[in-house]
Known about the structure:
The chain is mainly alpha-helical.
Amino acid sequence: MTNRNPAAGGVPVCLVYVADNEKRLATPTGGPPPGAPRTGTSGNPPAGARPSFGEVDVGFIGQNVYLFYASEGLAVWFYGTDREGLARAMN
């Protein structure tokens, strides 16, 4: 089960988008040491860190999926994921 909504369990296709934020937030040489906090006190990434735009990328991908499904006369539903449930289901 990828979603806490029971209706999500009956869909024929479920696309799951995954972003590895550890790779996206890698710092260039001379940046903070591995394991250092990824954000400063203001909530911004530390100097030299690359911010994660995974959520933005998923929005772009989701929009394209919506447009394709609409062009084919199909229904589509975009929703958040039960991360813990998905992790258990995928072992």
